[in-house]
Amino acid sequence: MNTYKRHRFLPDIISYAVWLYHRFNLSGRDVEDLLAARDVSVSYESIRLWCIKFGTRYARRLKQRHGGYGDTLCLDEVFVKIRGVQHFLWRAVDQDGEVVDVYLQARRDGAAAKRFFKRIMRSCGSEPRNIVTDKLRSYGVAQRELMPDVIHNTARYANNRAEQSHEPTRVRERGKRSFKSPKHARRFLSTHATVYNSFNLGRHLGAAFSPDSHTLFDILALPEY
């Protein structure tokens, strides 16, 4: 079934609006104004519904075409308050700054760390060679049980790459005046991380152009049947 069936706007317009919302610190009304400047009249509520419906699908397509991650992963967790309740956003990035996975959980104990490690192995397809974390003991529990042969580095300042990668999320959190629910946060952050990877300047190891390559909008606007 065509994903865009019964939508009166072209796939290029829908994908462009969803991309703007997730790539830049913009609200739905900001995206509405940008589209209006291009003679596209669409309400911010439609843009919100597009982001809910198509955001995760676009992220899935981008992940399928991802070239793979490095063998050194930096892991960190940060506090996120949602409706007055404290949650923990777990994040893993490789040595080139590519976001491997983000996962919002209510705790940061050993069980939560093991769930996150399992997600990382599914995303990478195999175990990394090195992992770099802070001294949170939950990481050691998960590493000993799930990745006993992986080198675990907890040296001071070694995990700065993961800690700095939280900043784009913090910017969006402030722009959105906090997340409305854990489900909303998980949906947005997963898509935001995937779109962010598409513009990561660390992609210096890949070819600049190939005849078979697709641009970001080519990938997003591909119809599904």
Low-confidence stretches: 210-214
Quaternary organisation of the protein chains: single chain
Largest sheet: 5 strands, mixed
Q: What would the CATH topology of the largest domain be? A: Nucleotidyltransferase, domain 5
Protein structure class: alpha/beta
CATH homology superfamily of the largest domain: Ribonuclease H-like superfamily/Ribonuclease H
User: How would you sum up the global shape?
Assistant: elongated
**Range of strand content:** 15-25%
Q: What topology, given as strand order, has the largest sheet?
A: 3-2-1-4-5
Supply the CATH class of the largest domain: Alpha Beta
Q: What is the tally of beta strands?
A: 5
Rg is 19 Å
Number of helices: 9
Helix coverage percent: 40-55%
Write a structural description.
This protein is an alpha/beta fold. The protein folds into two domains: 1-64 and 184-225, no CATH class; 72-179, Ribonuclease H-like superfamily/Ribonuclease H (Nucleotidyltransferase, domain 5, 2-Layer Sandwich), CATH 3.30.420.10. It is 46% helix and 15% strand. The chain is built from nine helices and five strands, in the order H-H-H-E-E-E-H-E-H-E-H-H-H-H. Strands 3-2-1-4-5 form a five-stranded mixed β-sheet, with helices on both faces. A hairpin with a 4-residue loop joins strand 2 and strand 3 (99-105). It is elongated and about 55 Å long. The protein starts with 10 loop residues before the first helix and ends in a 5-residue tail after the last helix. Mean pLDDT is 86; it is low at 210-214.
